[in-house]
């Protein structure tokens, strides 16, 4: 493999993909635009445009409602955080270097787990890193980081990356679409007329 590891592996991406397993953004829209497959080109464009308008409109409406209720973080981020918070209840923390913000967190024994539990992780509060790698990867405090932050009396949710905030999500979904004119108002095209190649048409069946 000639490509650098940071170009195609999640382990070496520096956390820039926030846990996403693919760099191909178009794959994220496959499910949304699945219904456009097999449609004529013009119908495909209309279908895609309509789906995007609905997609942005619905999410803008949901985020506006959540912000009005005083919510700060996306449901996706909070689900991950809540799961990590639940796991942190059994962890133990030890101050290791207060000046550098380094703490040691040990997990409990797990007789029912194949890995057995009782692992030690180094937490660096200043650098926002954990030995498990999950904090750097998703930019959401892992269970070990939450344990250390709670030990310091800090609100661990403030360490969630701003990309998961509803305010930033609102900026993404605030794009204004322009309503297209009726076909009868379209101006004539001044240029060559494109005709489909009949030899490329698929047969029936």
Automatic annotation (TrEMBL):
<dbReference type="InterPro" id="IPR006564">
    <property type="entry name" value="Znf_PMZ"/>
</dbReference>
<dbReference type="Pfam" id="PF04434">
    <property type="entry name" value="SWIM"/>
</dbReference>
<keyword id="KW-0862">Zinc</keyword>
<keyword id="KW-0863">Zinc-finger</keyword>
<dbReference type="InterPro" id="IPR007527">
    <property type="entry name" value="Znf_SWIM"/>
</dbReference>
<keyword id="KW-0479">Metal-binding</keyword>
<feature type="domain" description="SWIM-type">
    <location>
        <begin position="103"/>
        <end position="153"/>
    </location>
</feature>
<protein>
    <recommendedName>
        <fullName>SWIM-type domain-containing protein</fullName>
    </recommendedName>
</protein>
<dbReference type="GO" id="GO:0008270">
    <property type="term" value="F:zinc ion binding"/>
</dbReference>
């Amino acid at each position: 493999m000639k490509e650098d590891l940071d170009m195609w592996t999640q382990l070496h991406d520096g956390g820039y993909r926030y846990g996403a397993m693919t760099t191909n953004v178009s794959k994220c829209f496959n499910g949304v635009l699945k219904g456009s497959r097999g449609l004529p080109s013009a119908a495909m464009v209309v279908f895609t445009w309509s789906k995007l308008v609905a997609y942005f409109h619905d999410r803008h409406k949901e985020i506006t409602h959540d912000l009005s209720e005083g919510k700060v973080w996306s449901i996706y981020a909070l689900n991950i955080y809540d799961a990590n918070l639940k796991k942190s209840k059994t962890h133990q923390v030890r101050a290791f270097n207060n000046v550098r913000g380094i703490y040691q967190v040990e997990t409990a024994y797990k007789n029912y787990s194949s890995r057995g539990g009782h692992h030690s992780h180094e937490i660096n509060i200043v650098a926002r890193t954990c030995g498990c790698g999950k904090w750097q990867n998703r930019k959401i405090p892992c269970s070990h980081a939450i344990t250390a932050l709670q030990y310091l009396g800090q609100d661990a949710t403030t360490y969630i990356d701003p990309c998961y905030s509803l305010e930033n999500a609102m900026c993404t979904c605030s794009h204004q679409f322009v309503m297209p004119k009726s076909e009868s108002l379209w101006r004539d095209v001044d240029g060559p007329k494109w005709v489909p190649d009949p030899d490329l048409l698929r047969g029936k069946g």
